[in-house]
Amino acid sequence: MNFKIEEMIELLERTPETLKQLLSGLSDGWVLSNEGEGTWNALEVVGHLIEAEKVNWIPRVKMILTKGESETFPDFDRFAHLQQIQGKTMDDLLNEFKQVRNESLTDLKTLITIHTDYELKGTHPVYGSVKLSELLSTWAVHDLTHITQITRVMAKRYRGDVGSWINYLSILK
């Protein structure tokens, strides 16, 4: 098993600044482009990360630590953020994400001790029994997945403009 709480936290701590450096101050062409109907743009992805931060990660950690498998995690509405981001700018969302992520990490550092058993389990509404280590690993990989998604969507904006170099740009395939 590769999971180490310290490494997971160091990655999660960097995501808000990574996104700020990538997205802050960019024109709407970059942050509002998507891959077609039913796909998300960068603004929507950041909104999704905020929603997950508020209702998914720490609440589920707390459930595992306090209730174990006796109660099922509440469903996570992966689209709830679409209403909540209306009228917000990318900079608004990046600032909010930084704030809620800092709060989550503060909570996590309070909840997790050197005695925490990462094999403790909770009950996911779809996957059934899941370990605390799996939830925490998923949180880190979720960040990386959406960073990749954002860069892929942005790159595809220029897909038709790169000419023959498309053969060397795996992100466009």
From TrEMBL:
Pfam families per UniProt: DinB_2 (PF12867)
Limits of the DinB-like domain: 12-150
Record-linked InterPro entries: DinB-like, DinB/YfiT-like
Domain of life: Bacteria
Protein name, entry field: DinB-like domain-containing protein
Organism: Fictibacillus barbaricus
